[in-house]
């Protein structure tokens, strides 16, 4: 394993270019991909800490498990479809030489993002629905956490949608660069990550 | 043409040098300009924090003398001093300032891999500073909850800044964390992926190892602060009860119920302790390079130093509850955290031994950066040893709320990193500005600062043993603190004012030398690392002229036997050296 070899060798014993004349990244991925991976690890830390807080707060005694509105299931379906669309955009983009807004890759990419927008809107409706039925953010710690976890998740999705919207605009204007294929790829990875996070959060919220 | 990030471009012609003043100095994407922007703002805001500490000291040294210092203002000064120094000065200057300047230069790249994100990072940082400073001008002023912002104190009526200061603080922290994350992603990716040819991980200077590990710590630790800030914000604005227990507020039952203040402390310190090392690890790295260069000797135990940095980084996530012994905890937890705390002393002590052994039989040049670096070894050993006392539950409990703790953490993470900052600022000043600073003025600055800080913090240990409590606006008539303690306090205040004034020497030196300093050669210290081998000093946009450097050796080839100079730059190919090296048995 080259990373292990790198950090265990005796640097004072070697002179010259040990690995040839090419510079050698530690990971064989693009810079953007690595940065995204690191960012997803950071986001995982955030959600893990929130869940730890959730379980600690749950043990204090005033916790009343909340009933999750059915609309959350519909929202979850939207998010799953959104992920599926972005994944198909990745698959289609591999087969197409040019990606335009009306190509299959372009359409899947667009629809995938719009479905995520619909998810955000749906979550917003759920918050209103809960508030109307007397289950507002202050009513119980379980509800407070529902608002907290969903809003932090939505904030992460909005970050992704910002990148998506910039790419979508350049797609409509027909000014996509070589980079575009990678953008689709990275968006899809981020979307899948947020889907997994959401399913985890949903599972915890619905069962405690 | 295929898109190639700036960091990967070998060809200087494709760089598109920024032409206008605005693109060159304001909306700049050049890592060196961003570093100077970061550094300038951090030092500016640090001076405000220095002023606040003088206000605190005036009150403590001469109580009932200054009518403009009331208890609320005192607590606001304490809070803002702590928060600014730890986060907005030290974190920002080490990582945003030195990280930005040194990473691309020491790694032999043209810039960070995401220059736009890097620029954004600075502007978010500036915004966070502006929001923080704005809280001085709103009704009620900034928060006075202490830099730890413990709930329920921080968001209860009666705490200074309850009206808005605390909200500004939380927002500012949130923005800072976003800024740090953008910068941090850049640092990590650049170091891992964009190093120039031949620069293996183990050929990196220790500065880069320190900055890299601290950045990783920051990326993992700041989320804990973000989570606690968001939840505290929910409690404050929306009235949830994450941290807020049922309690009486101004004689009435508050609307909060059931929240856990201890949960806040856990979250805060899960960030707070790694934060100590976010500040310390870059300092360890920078000081290693300064010591090695000015002792004309390879750093002793390079691999140990790297592993120690990583070990300290890993361990720093397992010790946080030693800040919470007085909050009460299961004795087994106390035992666990005391043990991990003491274990962290092992790699740390190893580093100290290695610095000392690097100096041993070195050809030491006692110039200004070296004086600051050696001063750091003293203050760090001092602060580190008192840390060993405080790491034990049974010693911590009586001392936790006394000036002993104030003395300890100021020695270990106040004075020590600041001495390294000065060492580094003087050391890299010729590269950044192209001018030499005034050596005499620098030495006077060192002695005033070094002896002055001892005059401040050494007596504080004693006051702590006397039982003088920290965080008190005034002592009043306490039987266990003798009247003579007041005389000591007055002396400490005078020393603090002296040290603060002495810092003028630094600024005079920096600004005077910019214009009048002797022109610096590209490598005035005879250093081996890449940043000293740039074709231009200060380095131009793109750093390396026509071609990126190749690295043929590690970063510490000083005083190699049989070589005509007492250093060999990292980018010097050397068959001649290789022969000498192997016949002499090497210095492994």
Short description:
With 208 residues, chain A is an all-alpha fold.
What is the C-alpha radius of gyration of chain B, as a whole number of Å? 24 Å
Helix content of chain A: over 70%
CATH second-level architecture of chain A: Up-down Bundle
Low-confidence stretches of chain A: none
Oligomer: heterodimer
The biggest beta sheet of chain A reads: none
Strand arrangement, major sheet of chain B? 1-2
| Broad shape of chain B | globular
Low-confidence stretches of chain B: 579-588
- How do the helices and strands follow one another from N- to C-terminus of chain A? HHHHHH
The proportion of residues forming helix of chain B, as a percent range, comes to 55-70%
| Rg of chain A, Å, rounded | 22 Å
CATH superfamily of chain A: Cytochrome c oxidase, subunit III, four-helix bundle
**What is the average of the pLDDT values of chain A?**
90
Instruction: Tell me the total number of β-strands of chain B.
Output: 2
Helices and strands of chain A: which structural class? mainly alpha
The span between the termini of chain A is 44 Å
Classify the beta-strand content of chain B into a percent band: under 5%
Q: Can you count the helices of chain B?
A: 15
Strand content of chain A: under 5%
Average pLDDT of chain B: 92
Summary keywords:
heterodimer, A: 208 residues, mainly alpha, Four Helix Bundle (Hemerythrin (Met), subunit A), B: 588 residues, 2 strands, 62% helix, globular, disordered C terminus
């Amino acid at each position: 394993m080259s990373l292990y070899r790198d950090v265990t060798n005796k640097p004072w014993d070697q002179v010259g270019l040990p690995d040839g004349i090419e510079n050698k990244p530690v990971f064989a991925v693009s810079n953007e991909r690595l940065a995204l991976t690191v960012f997803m690890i950071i986001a995982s830390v955030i959600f893990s800490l929130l869940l730890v807080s959730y379980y600690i707060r749950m043990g204090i005694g005033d916790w009343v498990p909340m009933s999750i509105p059915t609309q959350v299931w519909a929202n979850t379906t939207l998010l799953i479809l959104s992920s599926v669309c972005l994944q198909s955009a990745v698959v289609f983009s591999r087969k197409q030489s040019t990606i335009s807004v009306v190509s299959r890759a372009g359409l899947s990419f667009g629809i995938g993002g719009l479905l995520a927008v619909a998810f955000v809107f749906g979550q917003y409706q759920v918050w209103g629905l809960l508030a109307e039925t007397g289950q507002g953010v202050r009513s119980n710690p379980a509800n407070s956490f529902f608002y907290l976890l969903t809003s932090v998740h939505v904030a992460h999705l909005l970050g992704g949608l910002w990148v998506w919207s910039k790419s979508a605009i350049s797609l409509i204007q027909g000014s996509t660069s070589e980079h575009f294929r990678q953008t689709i790829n990275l968006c899809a990875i981020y979307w899948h990550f947020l889907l997994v996070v959401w399913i985890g959060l949903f599972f915890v919220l619905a069962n405690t | 043409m295929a898109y190639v990030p700036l960091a990967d471009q070998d060809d200087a012609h494709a760089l598109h040098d920024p032409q206008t003043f605005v693109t060159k100095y304001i909306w700049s994407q050049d890592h060196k300009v961003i570093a100077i922007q970061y550094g300038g703002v951090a030092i500016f805001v640090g001076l405000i924090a220095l002023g606040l500490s003088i206000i605190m000291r005036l009150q403590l040294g001469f109580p009932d003398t200054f009518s403009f210092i009331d208890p609320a203002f005192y607590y606001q000064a304490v809070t803002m001093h702590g928060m600014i120094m730890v986060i907005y000065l030290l974190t920002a200057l080490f990582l945003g300032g030195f990280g930005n300047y040194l990473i691309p230069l020491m790694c032999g790249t043209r810039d960070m891999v995401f220059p736009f994100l890097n620029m954004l990072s600075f502007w978010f940082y500036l915004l966070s500073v502006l929001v923080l400073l704005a809280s001085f001008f709103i009704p009620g002023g900034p928060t006075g909850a202490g830099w730890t912002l413990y709930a329920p104190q921080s968001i209860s009526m009666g705490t200074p800044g309850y009206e808005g200061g605390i909200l500004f603080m939380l927002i500012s922290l949130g923005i800072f964390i976003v800024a740090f994350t953008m910068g941090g992603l850049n640092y990590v990716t650049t170091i891992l992926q964009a190093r120039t040819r031949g620069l293996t991980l183990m050929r990196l200077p220790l500065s880069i190892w320190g900055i890299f590990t601290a950045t990783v710590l920051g990326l993992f630790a700041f989320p804990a602060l973000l989570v606690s800030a968001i939840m505290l914000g929910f409690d404050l604005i929306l009235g949830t009860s994450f941290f807020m227990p049922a309690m009486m507020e101004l004689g009435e039952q508050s609307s909060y119920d059931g929240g856990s203040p201890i949960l806040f402390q856990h979250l805060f310190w899960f960030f707070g302790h790694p934060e100590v090392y976010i500040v310390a690890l870059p300092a360890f790295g920078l000081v290693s390079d300064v010591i090695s260069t000015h002792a004309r000797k390879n750093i002793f135990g390079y691999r140990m130093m790297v592993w120690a940095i990583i070990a300290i980084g890993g361990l720093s996530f397992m010790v946080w509850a030693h800040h919470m012994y007085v909050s009460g905890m299961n004795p087994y937890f106390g035992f666990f955290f005391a043990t991990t705390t003491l274990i962290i002393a092992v790699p740390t002590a190893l580093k100290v031994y290695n610095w000392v052994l690097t100096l041993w039989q070195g050809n030491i040049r006692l110039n200004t950066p070296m004086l600051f670096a050696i001063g750091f070894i003293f203050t760090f050993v001092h602060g580190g040893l008192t840390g060993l006392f405080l790491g034990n539950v049974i010693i911590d409990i009586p001392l936790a709320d006394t000036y002993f703790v104030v003395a300890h953490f100021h020695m270990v993470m106040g004075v020590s990193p600041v001495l390294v900052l000065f060492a580094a600022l003087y050391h890299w000043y010729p590269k950044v500005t192209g001018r030499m600073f005034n050596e005499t003025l620098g030495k006077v600055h060192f002695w005033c600062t070094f002896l002055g800080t001892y005059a401040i913090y050494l007596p504080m240990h004693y006051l702590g043993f006397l039982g003088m409590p920290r965080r008190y606006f005034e002592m009043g008539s306490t039987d266990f603190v003798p009247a003579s303690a007041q005389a000591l306090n007055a002396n400490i205040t005078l020393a603090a004012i002296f040290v603060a004034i002495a810092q003028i020497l630094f600024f005079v030196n920096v600004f005077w030398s910019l214009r009048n300093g002797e022109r610096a050669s590209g490598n005035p210290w005879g250093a081996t690392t890449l940043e000293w081998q740039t074709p231009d000093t200060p380095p131009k946009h793109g750093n390396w002229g026509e071609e990126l450097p190749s690295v043929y050796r590690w970063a510490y080839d000083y005083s190699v036997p049989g070589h005509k100079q007492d250093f060999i730059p990292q980018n010097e190919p050397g068959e001649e050296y290789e022969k000498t090296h192997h016949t002499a048995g090497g210095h492994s």
